[in-house]
Design brief:
Blueprint (H helix, E strand, L loop, with lengths): L1 E9 L8 H9 L4 E4 L2 E4 L2 E11 L5 E9 L6 H19 L4 E5 H33 L32 H9 L7 H10 L8 H4 L7 H5 L1 H4 L3 H19 L6 H23 L8 H15 L1 H24 L5 H4 L5 H10 L5 H19 L7 H28 L1
Antiparallel strand pairs: 1-5, 1-6, 2-3, 3-4, 4-5
């Protein structure tokens, strides 16, 4: 098991100009001796070789040190020695030691990879099964509206479930990002309609408090908070990056990984096994689906924000002009079709406005519910501009109404 270090020394320094001097400085630490190509430490002996050279710009000279442990029974001693030698070499050089090769760390990386791979697949499995069996997203193109297919990047070959393209840390956003469950207008309506506190349902009001999907649907079943898992998933992400990018990890980090695996894996597995205990309403399904789209891509989230702003404006104008017979059409502020029909009946908008709104609604529904459909950034931005244009028209009409009042 071999390690190689590169130790840099400022060429202007008058000390440590030879291999003999370097060895002398290393042996000044009690317990270390160097002789005949061997370095000994507290009864353990390792192969040892040093090469002296000058850097190209001659501002530094370097020592290339190779240490090899051929006895796998004393790995623990080898680890302790390497930690000490790095400390010594850093003090001698004044610079951090450059690690050129570390078979010991590589062995930990090899052992770490399957653990991380399994955890990542567990998370993807949990989210995929939850979305398919509980939310019921249409993860195929079978019902993709014809008017939006031109925006799809790849229409020839079926794409993988998009979760298998999502970055490790992005997966956690689906489970742990807080969002409000219901439209804020609903709570205002409920409070206005209540004659006393007893008319308000506390459990229903809690839906207005921002929560993550984990807190909403898994926390009680698994008996584990989202904060507990999110913190550990963040640490796993740090370790995963080291392993994935061929950086060195030591024994302490590997032990940390094993501990995290024990804390996280069982929770995820229990959540997977408990999916049949979760029951969510149609309204909650829509909220979850939209939340996935928000976290999937920044421009997706921007489009949905503009869409929801347009719905709020549509609701405000429809509320101004509606009468008692229109209340059923007005709904809770999400029924764009009912609100548009009210505005057409009051000559606020025309059929062209409604038709454009219908096309944009179809686009939004595909973006939210058909997760294997990928839209170009340009197509989404062009539709955002169309949404803003409709918003501006409604805003101008609202200003006119307010002036008349």
């Amino acid at each position: 098991m071999k390690v190689e270090y590169l130790v840099m020394i400022d060429s202007n320094e008058e000390y440590c100009k030879s291999i003999n001097t370097l060895n002398y400085l290393i042996q000044s630490y009690d317990g270390i001796t160097i002789s005949n190509g061997k370095i000994s430490y507290e009864g353990a002996e390792f192969a040892y070789d040093v090469q002296l050279g000058e850097s190209d710009n001659t501002s530094h000279r370097f020592f290339h040190i190779r240490i090899d442990n051929e006895d796998e029974s004393n790995i623990g001693m080898f680890q302790s020695f390497l930690k000490l030698i790095r400390t010594i070499l850093t003090k001698i050089s004044g610079f951090p030691v450059e690690i050129l090769c570390d078979d010991l760390s590589s062995s930990f990386c090899f052992k770490a990879y399957p653990i991380i791979h399994n955890l990542e697949n567990q998370m993807r499995k949990l989210i995929t099964k939850f979305m398919l069996t509980n939310v019921g997203l249409g993860w195929t193109k079978d019902n993709t509206p014809e008017e939006v297919t031109a925006s799809i990047k790849n229409t020839k070959a079926p794409l993988n479930n998009f979760l298998y393209e999502v970055d490790f840390i992005q997966l956690s956003k689906f489970l742990f990002t807080d969002y409000a469950g219901l439209d804020s207008k609903k709570i205002i309506e409920k409070i206005k309609g209540a004659e006393s506190v007893s008319d308000l349902d506390l459990a229903e009001l809690r839906e207005f408090v921002p929560q993550s999907n984990w807190e909403r649907y898994f926390a009680e079943i698994v008996d584990c908070t989202g904060e507990f898992l999110e913190k550990r998933w963040g640490r796993l992400y740090e370790l995963r990056n080291k392993v994935a990018h061929n950086r060195f990890i030591g024994e302490s980090e590997y032990i940390d990984l094993e501990k995290l695996n024990g804390e996280v894996s069982d929770k995820l597995q229990l959540a997977i096994e408990s999916l049949d205990k979760i029951h969510i309403t149609d309204e909650q399904k829509e909220e979850v689906a939209e939340n996935v789209a928000f976290n999937r891509d920044e421009v997706y989230g921007e489009f949905l924000e503009v869409w929801n702003i347009l719905l709020e404006q549509l609701y405000d104008v429809a509320s101004y002009v509606s009468d008692e017979s229109d209340k059923g059409k007005l709904g809770s502020g999400k029924n764009w079709r009912g609100m548009a029909n009210i505005l057409i009946s009051k000559d606020v908008i025309n059929k062209d406005f409604k038709n454009e709104l219908q096309d944009l609604a179809a686009f939004r529904n595909t973006l939210v519910h058909h997760t294997d459909v990928i839209f170009t950034k340009e197509s989404i931005i062009s539709r955002m501009k169309a949404l803003i244009n409709l918003y501006d028209q409604l805003r101008e009409y609202e200003k006119t109404i307010q002036q008349e009042i």
